[in-house]
């Protein structure tokens, strides 16, 4: 046993009891136990995290998938590691995660924690935690009523980074907002040293089109998606930093995954889409920074399983159902681009909510390139969620034919439509709370075994 303050002791014990009760009665509960612990001792994170080598993952898109990839690599290498795999990335959820695994007995200090952190909560975590490394994946418009534009999100992240100058930063070098940061931390950059196509013209709906130094429009040698790519400013000379880890070839893109070269070696990433190549490259970069062997990285990327709601596949009425979280224009476009790799007859279920966790403002759907759906062999488009009529109007404008629409005002109707539709696969594109609620519904029907 080691010395611990009395309020910290009771904070931990009380939270542990609530965690056990939540698991038994509600099949989980990731935030409430942490809220109680923090109410009893707002400094409890300082105690329960001190024995861990902590890697924090933040950014707009890809946090959960990248976190799980890094966790798998560390675990496969034989190290002791924990993670907040359910995506509870606010301070209460992170607190509950550490309390769940906390022991009052002295143990080995060679323990790792791979923790996903909401962008606005990073500063609340680094107030009490000294991480080994911090990952920033990218910065896109997301939840406009909460974050505003990408520059606001960047400032929130910088507030967190400034508190931990000794933490190593692993940053997406293709993200123009993350280059040349005025902080003393050691910086490692990853990105694409490979042009996917001949596109050098940034979209009008891209998120960071102007130089963060002089506000002149960026030029690109190539663009991967949205505003990511090999950028440079003709006016002031600001350009993409030199990359430490990079994609130098994309050999295959399929609905199942991607075959790529990373720093000259071939890897298969068992998750589809360009955005998952970024996630895999990011995880690779962290693993190499932690001196994890290539064989562990290779096998982990090759066998990586989907996180819940992130390309998660289940079977309903002999049809494959793939659930994809979509929450902003950049991510939605990448999800659609990934679906276009599937040449089968398919169906879409599109779920749009406007709860707090989704963002109240749903105007962002007009920046999604739904028009590209016209290239697909779509049987039916099922529309559901709180804002189903807003989504239906958007899809109508995008050119979806009237006879393909099925409107489902509740999940019972949506499930019936999914069961009865033709085709081999149904892609479910759902915003955050819609994804959570629909999974809970499917779990209550016995169609999903693991809720969290």
Features:
452 residues; 14 helices; nine-stranded mixed beta sheet; Protein-Tyrosine Phosphatase, Chain A; six-stranded mixed beta sheet
Helices and strands in order, then pairings?
Elements lengths: L5 H21 L5 H9 L3 H5 L3 E7 L4 H14 L3 E4 L7 H11 L9 E6 L5 H5 L6 E4 L7 H4 L2 H12 L6 E5 L14 E6 L26 E7 L2 E5 L12 E9 L4 E5 L2 E5 L4 H16 L4 H10 L6 E7 L2 E7 L3 H11 L6 E6 L26 E7 L3 H10 L7 E3 L3 H10 L4 E6 L1 H13 L8
Parallel strand pairs: 1-3, 1-4, 2-3, 4-5, 5-6, 6-9, 13-17, 14-15, 14-17, 15-16
Antiparallel strand pairs: 7-8, 9-10, 10-11, 12-13
Helix pairs in contact: 1-2, 2-5, 4-9, 4-10
Describe this structure in words.
The chain contains 14 helices and 17 strands. By secondary structure, the chain is an alpha/beta fold. Strands 2-3-1-4-5-6-9-10-11 form a nine-stranded mixed sheet, sandwiched between helices. The longest helix has 21 residues, at 6-26. The two termini are 32 Å apart. Helix 12 (388-397) links the parallel strand 15 and strand 16 (405-407). It folds into two domains: 6-303, Mur-like, catalytic domain (UDP-N-acetylmuramoyl-L-alanine:D-glutamate ligase), CATH 3.40.1190.10; 310-444, Protein-Tyrosine Phosphatase, Chain A. 46% of the residues are buried. Helix 2 packs across helix 5 and helix 4 (63-76) crosses helix 10 (294-303).
């Amino acid at each position: 046993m080691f010395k611990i303050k009395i309020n910290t002791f009771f904070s931990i014990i009380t939270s542990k009891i609530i965690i056990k009760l939540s698991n038994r009665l509600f099949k989980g509960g990731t935030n409430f136990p942490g809220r109680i612990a923090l109410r009893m001792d707002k400094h409890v994170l300082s105690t329960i995290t001190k024995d861990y080598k902590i890697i924090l993952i933040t950014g707009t898109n890809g946090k959960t998938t990248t976190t799980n990839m890094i966790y798998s690599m560390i675990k496969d290498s034989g190290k002791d590691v924990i993670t907040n795999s359910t995506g509870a990335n606010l301070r209460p959820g992170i607190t509950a995660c550490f309390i769940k695994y906390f022991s009052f007995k002295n143990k080995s200090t060679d323990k790792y924690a791979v923790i996903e952190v909401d962008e606005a909560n990073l500063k609340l975590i680094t107030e009490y935690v000294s991480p080994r490394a911090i990952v920033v994946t990218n910065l896109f418009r997301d939840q406009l009523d909460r974050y505003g534009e990408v520059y606001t999100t960047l400032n929130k992240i910088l507030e967190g980074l400034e508190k931990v100058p000794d933490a190593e930063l692993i940053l997406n070098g293709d993200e123009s907002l993350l280059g040349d940061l005025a902080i003393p931390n050691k910086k490692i950059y990853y990105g694409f040293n490979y042009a996917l196509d001949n596109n050098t013209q940034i979209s009008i709906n891209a998120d960071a089109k102007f130089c963060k130094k002089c506000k002149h429009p960026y030029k690109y040698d190539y663009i991967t998606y949205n505003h990511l790519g090999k950028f440079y400013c003709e006016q002031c000379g600001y350009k993409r930093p030199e990359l430490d880890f990079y994609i130098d070839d994309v050999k295959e893109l399929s609905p199942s995954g991607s075959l790529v070269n990373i720093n000259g070696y071939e890897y298969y990433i068992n998750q589809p889409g360009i955005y998952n190549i970024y996630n895999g490259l990011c995880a690779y970069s962290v693993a190499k920074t932690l001196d994890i062997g290539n064989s562990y990285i290779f096998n982990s990327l090759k066998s990586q399983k989907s996180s819940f709601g992130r390309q998660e596949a289940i079977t309903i009425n002999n049809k494959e159902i793939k659930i994809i979280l979509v929450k902003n224009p950049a991510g939605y476009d990448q999800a659609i681009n990934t679906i276009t790799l599937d040449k089968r007859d398919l169906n879409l279920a599109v779920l749009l909510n406007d709860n707090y966790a989704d963002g109240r403002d749903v105007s962002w759907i007009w920046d999604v390139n739904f028009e590209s759906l016209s290239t697909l062999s779509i049987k039916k488009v099922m529309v559901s969620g709180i804002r189903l009529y807003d989504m239906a109007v958007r899809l109508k404008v995008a050119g979806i034919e009237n006879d393909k629409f099925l409107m489902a005002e509740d999940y019972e109707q949506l499930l019936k439509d999914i069961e009865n539709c033709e085709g081999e696969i149904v892609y479910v594109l759902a915003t955050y709370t819609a994804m959570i609620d629909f999974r809970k519904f499917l779990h209550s029907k016995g169609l999903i075994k693991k809720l969290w």
